[in-house]
Specification:
Strand order of the largest sheet: 1-4
Number of domains: 1
Shape: globular
Strand content: under 5%
Radius of gyration: 19 Å
Number of strands: 4
Structural class: mainly alpha
Helix content: 40-55%
Length: 320
């Protein structure tokens, strides 16, 4: 059997061209861009909810902690990660500094301090999507080769997907990972972790950690990591999800729309689709994240190599 490899093309990514076409045809799209300060209360509510649940679970059986993290905590953790994503595009509050603070606040209930590093590498992902040397969203070839198209290895890979993601930036050594913001992010979140451990107890901290682990892993919400860019239709690089779970995930499923207009906030992404339906309704999309996960695991044509890649351009780093 031929060795698996990425789907390679010399064509540029389609999003800048489609963005220009939509703006030329529908200039009113510009009215959809900009921050939505109503996102900030959701961040506060989710962080508080996670700490309250962690407190109630502090002296409960371990199996209940795990079940609560999978059923409830994963949804909150995923939502907080979406808000970190929104803040990365300055779509939560006015100004870069306020958005960075909002992202760090979202991180308080996520145990792992990744908001500022995510911001840096995610912005590069938008500018240089699909470039093996510059896009941390793509698994390294060695990792993809190890997983291959084996169903149980793919399932295990998704189970530990948060661990895989955490190591992705290491392949981009030309990007400076640490600065004052990322160090501050690290110290603040670790300080909160220590406080939770001593004030609430280890089971409370375990709940918060498992919430993130499940929300970014083998879970219906985790299906969106596969949904976004793993190829199921030849030539289509980005996919959207239009199912009911978007109501719990702040419309993060509208991923084609987001890559076309990353400064359109989550509330307005469905409006963008309705405004230019001929650009979105003709593309392949999904209605179930669970189906996305199962198809990836059991479809032998799918693997971590199921990504369209482009030639690497100059190593330009995005401002964080």
């Amino acid at each position: 059997m031929a060795e698996l490899d990425f789907i390679r093309t010399d064509e540029p990514q389609v999003h800048p061209r489609r963005r220009k076409e939509i703006l030329d045809r529908y200039p009113e799209v510009r009215q959809l861009t900009g921050r939505d300060p109503r996102s900030a209360p959701y961040v506060v509510l989710m962080v508080v909810a996670q700490f309250v649940i962690a407190w109630f679970l502090r002296d409960q059986p371990w199996w209940l902690v795990i079940a609560a993290a999978y059923v409830v905590g994963a949804v909150f953790a995923h939502g907080l990660y979406v808000m970190i994503h929104e803040a990365s595009h300055n779509n939560v509050l006015k100004g870069t500094v306020r958005n960075k603070l909002a992202a760090i606040f979202s991180d308080l209930a996520l145990v792992f301090p990744g908001a500022m590093i995510f911001r840096k590498f995610h912005l590069i992902h938008h500018r240089q999507m699909g470039e093996l040397d510059n896009d941390a969203d793509i698994a390294p070839a060695q990792e993809a080769r190890l997983i291959g198209n084996s169903w149980w290895r793919k399932a295990l890979w998704l189970f530990f997907f948060s661990v895989s993601q955490a190591g992705r930036p290491l392949k981009m050594r030309h990007v400076k990972m640490w600065n004052a913001w990322s160090v501050s992010n690290l110290l603040v979140v670790l300080g909160v972790d220590v406080a939770v451990f001593f004030l609430f107890g280890p089971l409370a901290l375990l709940y918060l950690a498992l919430s993130l682990f499940f929300g970014l892993g083998l879970h219906p919400m985790g299906g969106r990591w596969i949904q976004e860019h793993y190829v199921t239709v030849p030539g289509q690089e980005t996919y959207s999800y239009y199912g009911i779970a978007n109501r719990l995930a702040f419309n993060i499923g509208h991923h084609v729309e987001h890559h076309d207009f990353m400064n359109v906030n989550w509330r307005n992404l469905p409006k963008l689709r309705r405004l230019a339906p001929e650009y979105y309704d003709t593309l392949a999309s999904y209605r179930s994240w669970t189906w996305v996960v199962l198809n990836f695991i059991f479809n032998r044509k799918m693997s971590p190599f199921s990504r369209i890649t482009h030639p690497s351009t100059t190593r330009v780093t995005a401002k964080s």
